[in-house]
Amino acid sequence: MKKAFVKSYGCQMNAYDAARMADVLGAEGYAPTDTVEDADVVVLNTCHIREKAAEKVYSELGRLRELKGERRRAGLDTRIVVAGCVAQAEGAEIVARQPAVDVVVGPQSYHRLPDLIARSRERRVVDTEFPVEDKFDHLPARRNRGVTAFLTVQEGCDKFCAFCVVPYTRGAEVSRSVAAVVGEAEKLVAEGVREITLIGQNVNAYHGLSADGAAATLPDLMRAVAAIPGVARIRYTTSHPNDMADDLIRAHAEIPALMPYLHLPVQSGSDRILKAMNRKHTGDQYRRLIERVRASRPDIALSSDFIVGFPGETDEDFADTMRLVEEVGFESAFSFKYSPRPGTPAAERADAVPEAVKSERLAALQALLDRQRHAYQRAAEGQVVDVLVEKAGRHPGQVAGKTPHMLAVHFEAPASTIGSVVAVRIREAGANSLTGELVQRAEAA
Ligand code: SAH
Ligand code: SF4
Ligand code: F3S
At which positions is [4Fe-4S] cluster 2 bound (predicted)? Predict the structure, then answer.
């Protein structure tokens, strides 16, 4: 049997796309494999967001070239496919830099993968068009193992933050219809999924078509998904502060399946830097927004992304970021050193922050965020919380799952609890996860 190795290097949507590419290849008779040496087709689903992520691809491709040579000497063909956002941004360059690559395919064209692979036997193919047809209409049924799943509901971005490649690699904002999303969600639930995370580069700008022909908002979509029997939990990511509409804030109080967790990137606490980043909001506007979200759902856990060392960022600007973090308080966060990306406005600026300063600021910010995360985890000790059991734990007899606030918990329980929401008393907060004990079955699967 032919085998396909598909690897994701990027965000949740990149992981979603990788899974769908495995579906496309599965429909063509390729069984999935985790062993790259065995693969007849190797797909690298790449990420262009920071230089490090993009460069990783070229070193990986160097190794694959050798593997391809070895397999050829053994009489085996290997098709090497570069997909994702680096493919979209650097299609021609990839082909020029690495002769072992057979197919380059962008994030909007991967439904054509079987055809592209077939054509690559004649000559190497680059497909980075934004096709007129919708890839979602041409993808085979989803196969999903597991209790939680991502579901793309919106793709692309019209925001053009000065540092970011996403509007170029993913194109303009497009929302899928409510019917398309509900249809995919129903299939997931039929395969045992209990938690669905609605994903989009700007998911709270969602405005897909509803059955009555009007535009649905994200809360409308959440209600439609929550109505599917078997859906226990809904999450959504990633949101932009400026699209945090009143009905979405209210939804956190009104939709029981919607989990009390919000990933709302602020990037910086300095108004000067926010302006230079083209974020179109101030630090205080973000603080007031968080107050309103907390008024609607007092126990909501917050998460954010931060960039340190954006061009022109002074010590004072950075101190504003630290102050915002202290005032808001985050359960978790991702923080990055600014990485200049070709084609973005910020990359043209001459006032780059030295690498050493970026490193210092990142270390200080991460230390503060770590302290907040640990305090949040410790505050859970002794509480009884609902846990959706996702999988077997590391030790025999253990299972692992997540709290509504996205904290990972390990505890002893039979494997039959996988897929159910159970009550767990949190015993202790460890470095990265909590331990606890089963209290009772809160709900049957
Ligand atoms: N659509 C999402 C996520 C975009 S990418 C959003 O708007 O938040 C995820 C994160 O990567 C961003 O939030 C930002 O913090 C970071 N990022 C994007 N471009 C970057 C760059 N050039 N350098 C460093 N970090 C970057
Ligand atoms: Fe990038 Fe900004 Fe769009 Fe997020 S909102 S994807 S950071 S341009
Ligand atoms: Fe990376 Fe593209 Fe996602 S650049 S973060 S894989 S949208």
Answer: 157, 161, 164
